[in-house]
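dude i think i finally got it to work??
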Amino acid sequence: MIYFKVKEDSRQGKAFAQYIKTLPFVEEVAPADIPNTETIRAIKDAESGKINQYYSSEELFSKLRKKANV
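look at this
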């Protein structure tokens, strides 16, 4: 999926946006449906294996306590 941001405050931008919307393979999404930069980074980290994995909440909290020296 590719996201584009078209500034519709010019005649060319408005015409381009109207044209794109007529294509059968284009779906317009609301801005809330587009992930923000932090979410995109987290998704890429998860896909590349750069995440911490815990098999239980006890394991997660144990590692958090060790990290906080509690």
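The CA atoms of residues 24 and 54 lie 43 Å apart.
im so relieved honestly
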